[in-house]
Amino acid sequence: MGNMKTKVTDPSWKRYKELVRKEMIPYQWAVLNDNIDIKIEKERDDASIPSEKSHAIENFKIAAGLSKGEHYGWVFQDSDVYKWLEAVAYSLEDTWDEDLKTLADGVVDLIGKAQQPDGYINTYFTIKEPAKRYKRLVESHELYCAGHLLEALIAYNNATGNTKSMDIAYKLANHMDETFGPEEGKLHCADGHEEVEIGLMKLYHVTGEARYAKLADYFLKVRGDSPKVYEEQRKTDDGKGILGGGISPKPIKYNQTHLPVDMQDTAEGHAVRLVYMCTAMADVAATLKDEKLAAACKRIWRNIVDKRMYITGGIGSTVQGEAFTLDYDLPNDTMYCETCASIGLIFFAKQMLNIERNGEYADVMERALYNTALSGMALDGKHFFYVNPLEVVPNKGKLDPTKSHVKSVRPEWLGCACCPPNLARLITSIDDYIYSEVEDNILVNLFIKSEFTGDKVTIYQDSDYPKSGLVTFKVTNKEEKTARIGIRIPGWCDNYTGKFDGEDAGITNEKGYWYVNVPTGEHEVVFAMEIKPKRWYSNINVSEDTRKVAVSRGPQVYCVEEADNGRNLHCLSLNSDSEITTEWKGELLNGVNVLEAEGTRLLAIDTKAGLYTDKPNVTKVPAKIRFIPYHTWGNRGENEMRVWLFED
Amino acid sequence: MGNMKTKVTDPSWKRYKELVRKEMIPYQWAVLNDNIDIKIEKERDDASIPSEKSHAIENFKIAAGLSKGEHYGWVFQDSDVYKWLEAVAYSLEDTWDEDLKTLADGVVDLIGKAQQPDGYINTYFTIKEPAKRYKRLVESHELYCAGHLLEALIAYNNATGNTKSMDIAYKLANHMDETFGPEEGKLHCADGHEEVEIGLMKLYHVTGEARYAKLADYFLKVRGDSPKVYEEQRKTDDGKGILGGGISPKPIKYNQTHLPVDMQDTAEGHAVRLVYMCTAMADVAATLKDEKLAAACKRIWRNIVDKRMYITGGIGSTVQGEAFTLDYDLPNDTMYCETCASIGLIFFAKQMLNIERNGEYADVMERALYNTALSGMALDGKHFFYVNPLEVVPNKGKLDPTKSHVKSVRPEWLGCACCPPNLARLITSIDDYIYSEVEDNILVNLFIKSEFTGDKVTIYQDSDYPKSGLVTFKVTNKEEKTARIGIRIPGWCDNYTGKFDGEDAGITNEKGYWYVNVPTGEHEVVFAMEIKPKRWYSNINVSEDTRKVAVSRGPQVYCVEEADNGRNLHCLSLNSDSEITTEWKGELLNGVNVLEAEGTRLLAIDTKAGLYTDKPNVTKVPAKIRFIPYHTWGNRGENEMRVWLFED
After folding, report:
1. Using one digit for the tens of pLDDT, what is the confidence trace for A6-53?
2. A556-561 and B496-500 as β-strands: parallel, antiparallel, unpaired?
3. C-alpha distances out from residue A164 to A56, A104, B70, Å
4. Is B326–A399 a contact, with Cβ atoms under 8 angstroms apart?
5. Which A residues, 517 through 556, put their C-beta within 8 Å of a C-beta on chain B?
6. A116 and A63 in contact (C-beta within 8 Å)?
């Protein structure tokens, strides 16, 4: 990619960024330092790890020799600090803040001090189990943390010019390159949790040093090469137990080590791992022109999108292993749909656009972003969901332990703090997802008011999308050669028109993009999408959604909440012929388009009837059904919520 | 109860008894001795206990000093032997078998040798953790096993006259009475798993010794008295870990220790424990005329029957803790519905009839018996379900770990072997459930061809129920006083007629019974129930069953199977006005009445469509839907099954 730069100017996204800057970053900093009295909730009943505090910064101080004590938390606790630092980097890039920069410089220094002379860095193993370094890669997260550190250091250097961060990054990457690889004497293994491959590819992209891309490629290719590698590894230490703060043994699909990655056809195992793996695979495939890897990426993508993805862009149908299950298995009330997994799906989609210019990738990116990713955060920016259900009855989450992971209001913080910092770094870097430069095309993937500055072209995108579907681009082509802009035509959009310099332009839909040739100079392109409420139906094989409908408007999936519709949402039914009206409610949920339509509600005839009756004990009454955007649910206290409604 | 005796003569129940005698008892004996090469399946993915063999008899030999080695299996492994012995006892009572008697005498001898001088008996603690005797009662199952032993020994003595069995029983019961009780110096605690209370009450009923009833009452009353008792207990040993083959810590509701038992209103925690507790409570309440306990039994009963019981008589809505969850929470595909829990519900119902003559108790007994209990066993008598789902898609059980407990064919044996022996003892003693003597009434609770011999009355019941609803009773009243026979009028039955000595008799339904006054001498009573297919609807609060119907015929709930209806059973819908026809198929599934009705099937219009479409991609075609009795499902290989169908 060239020297492109994007700046979001959209007020609603700027509000999210401000929430991150003013709320999440300071809040997370306080959490990382245990300087805040918050209620840390367990993710679910069976979560076995203590979660009373974060201790993450203290772990670094201890590893650096600046403090005395024991490591506390998960083996991957370090990554909370790295994700915080990465979010800080993007935030500083957006809005300079000298105090924050000073604070973050100090964190970089601290990380540098905790780094071992050979470049290795991980506070758990440094403090607690030095003898087990790289001996439990299936659960150790050592390279996972290293990947997040590389991403953070690169972003921080990019935003601030801090050079120490790159020193740490090189030292760490070189250490890994000397330790892992196909050569004899090196370790032949990858981390149980993919992520380092993403960090190494980023390092390659900023440095151009082939060894880093090669190492990323190696980590991918060695995966699944020998399914017994972790078993063998365990034999090299005492082989006992799991690490403190580790992950109990799982079937090999959990780690995507059941097959060599380029032979995998389906999305298997832990959903976040799978999409992180695919993100790196797609990057390596595009960068190293690896057709076989690219083909595997496409196969796995098809499997997700055609058979294993919720309408909200959520993935991971089961809490056990936070994992994919089987085709068309999409339960709405027991699923996982982790915020991080949808964020990873966005990463994967973005990388796929470098392999193939196909609007479907951006469609899915947008679906995951506007629905499950944004749902991960409360409107106050201080409460977070890990799990993003499509159907909630609060008492079931409380009293049925198989649903204990399903919360009905966002907790302040969770014992495993992966999602909130991941969300923070996504929101602060959302700029980077709006445009792609692919094979001399500038693709407009997302409709977010922003300024794009490339080597040859600048674009001012103006829009209040998704409130309306009207998008105006002021494009300046600084070169003599015609520039080619690909404006995404969303898959959900049935009617759209285009204008070029005020004249109606015919739109050809080329795999989801409208390609506009822009001559030298300044020109105006208008793209007008019809945004209206739409009904969606699941594939017949999805048993959970039979006879049901979901409603969307533009990129937003909608849901019904008890706050608007009363209890027992399972008794509601949308009339198949009812008109769905749209009304802007500026004061509701920070401003949303509310949808309403006629439907019916089942009521009991005899409210004292027992459990089973030999005649139906229900009557249908007309009911006005009100829908709100899915990502805004759970912001008005504990209540029922449902995405899929019966349709009559 | 007087000196009553019942003998089942019904061919189909005799077939079940023969299966137990010829298949289950020898098979289980081989398992208990590890003399058989079987595939022992884990109950579910997260079952942590090794289950490669039973080792149960060997544990006794080691504890008795007859063999060397280590204890293997669950802490409650002994109870497998006791339940086997109890089934043997009932079987011998039915059909004498000298060889089996000799074998069982040997087992009694072995148990006697493993009993400690003070009366204590438990192979796990004797062999492995003598220092922890009675120090981990929350998980130890010491008294649970003792309860099963008492039941077995009493039954065995009753069937064979073996006196050694009663010696062991007295020694054990007296030991417990000396160890536990309100007096200072005794232990003030009950077992984490109720059962000893049932055994002690049986000992009371056969001996009339008040101390045993008093001890049962004490074990009930001390329960929940101090919710911290188990915590305190743990402090008296090293307090570390759980026992080998123990149960990981659970919330206190799991053990019904959250409240004193007579203050409990709802069915909470582990379902088997709850119904075992209630069985003993109802027995103690009736025996000791404890109104407060009786009232608690009634409250818990109402909660189960009105809000927490599946239409199949299954209980336990969640696999985690095999437990009750909340009112109206009855998921059809993730539930537990353990065979043992329905057996326990039958025990509870039987005891409730001694508190109150109300046909509802027998209705539920029949529902649980003909559906979930019988479903626990394959038609071959050699394969068993623990978990009795109402909706199964085989691959979901295999690939979604949250459904790994849901099997689609009955395994040969399971690591935790509680259900098959429990079923064996129920089937062999089914005679005892047909009639009750309550307050000078002889109640006919179940319609099973049988001979009843009481002190004053004999009854020959003749019927092929549930194939037809015609039941003829030849009643002989040997006394001068009129005898009162209460014939149950099933709650599901809308039309019925009665005859007395050939004359039409008006039937008054008194709380579910038709009371017939029978003068001295021999008389004939005919009770004719209309048995026809019926539709059932769930309470509106059961979200899983909204818009759905279940079909029954007589006491049998029906289901649809893939073998008869093809795949994707969620696409089937029963027409609301279609006639349901009945056809006897003698060759199918050992002979069943098959039901058929017109319905529709959803088919995809575009079979290559993706996951979500903005128009419904389904068309409805007429479909003949075939139903089979629920308890016969899963006998024709792996296939989909469903009880609740959509109705249009």
Report:
1. 999 999 999 999 999 998 899 889 989 988 766 555 555 554 444 578
2. unpaired
3. 21, 12, 60
4. yes
5. 534-543, 546-547, 550
6. no
- C-alpha span between A344 and A423 (Å, rounded): 10
Give the Cα separation of A337 and A313 in Å (integer).
8
Looking at domain A435-529, its CATH superfamily turns out to be Golgi alpha-mannosidase II (2.60.40.1180)
Q: How far is B602 from chain A (nearest CA, A)?
A: 8
CA distances to B55, B514, B555 from B530, rounded to whole Å, are 50, 15, 12
Residues near B135 by Cβ (< 8 Å), separated by ≥ 6? B233, B234, B236, B237
Q: Which of residues 263-322 of B touch A (CB under 8 A)?
A: 305-307, 309, 311, 317-321
Residue A622 Ramachandran class (φ > 0 left, ψ -120 to 50 alpha, else beta): beta
- At residue A198, the 3 state secondary structure works out as helix
Burial class (CB in 10 A: 0-12, 13-18, 19+), A609: middle
B61, two tokens: 């030999």
Q: Which of B324, B400, B406 is best to mutate for the A interface (most A CBs within 10 A)?
A: B400
Pairing assessment for the beta strands B483-488 and B441-444 based on DSSP bridges = parallel
Alpha carbons B406 and B386: distance in angstroms, whole number: 9
Please state the rounded mean pLDDT for residues B263-287: 97
Residue B317, min C-alpha distance to chain A (Å): 8
Please list the active-site residues of A. Answer: 322, 418
Q: What is the pTM of this model?
A: 0.94
* Contact between A539 and B610 using a beta-carbon 8 Å cutoff: yes
Instruction: Answer whether B568 sits within 8 Å of A540, measured CB to CB.
Output: yes
Chain B interface test: which of A540, A545, A577 (most B C-beta within 10 Å): A540
Interface ipTM: 0.94
SS3 of A121-135: CCHHHHHCCHHHCCC
Cα gap A51→B82, rounded to integer Å: 44
**Model confidence band, residue B48 (pLDDT cutoffs 50, 70, 90):** very low
Mean pLDDT of B425-453: 95
Nearest to A609 among B326, B539, B546 (CB): B539
What is the residue-averaged pLDDT of chain B?
A: 93
Query: What HEC string does A380-423 produce?
Result: CCCCECCECCCEECHHHHHHCHHHCCCCCCCCCEECCCCHHHHH
Question: For the segment B605-616, what is each residue's pLDDT rounded down to a tens digit?
Answer: 999 999 999 999
Residue B402, min C-alpha distance to chain A (Å):
6
Percent pLDDT > 70 in chain B is 96
The residues near A272 (Cβ < 8 Å, ≥ 6 apart) are A193, A316, A322, A338, A340, A341, A344, A418
Q: Where in chain A is the domain with CATH 2.60.40.1180?
A: 435-529
Token pair of B415 as six digits: 């690591």
The answer to whether B326 contacts A646, with C-beta atoms less than 8 Å apart, is no
- Measured distance CA(A473)–CA(A527) in Å, rounded: 8
Instruction: Give yes or no for a cis peptide into B182 (omega within 30° of 0).
Output: no
Planar angle of CA B111, B113, B115, nearest 5 degrees: 70
CA–CA distances in Å: residue A395 to residues A60, A375, B367, B581: 40, 20, 28, 41
In this structure, are residues B262 and B293 in contact, taking their beta carbons and an 8 Å threshold?
yes
Measure the CA–CA gap between A607 and A336, rounded to whole angstroms. Answer: 34
Looking at chain B, how many residues does it have?
648
Give the whole-angstrom CA distance, residue A337 versus residue A271. 9
Of the pLDDT bands very low, low, confident and very high (cuts 50, 70, 90), residue B40 is low
A582 in B contact zone (CB under 8 Å) = no
Task: Compute the distance between CA of residue A515 and CA of residue A443 in angstroms, rounded to an integer.
Answer: 9
Q: How far apart are the first and last CA of chain A?
A: 50
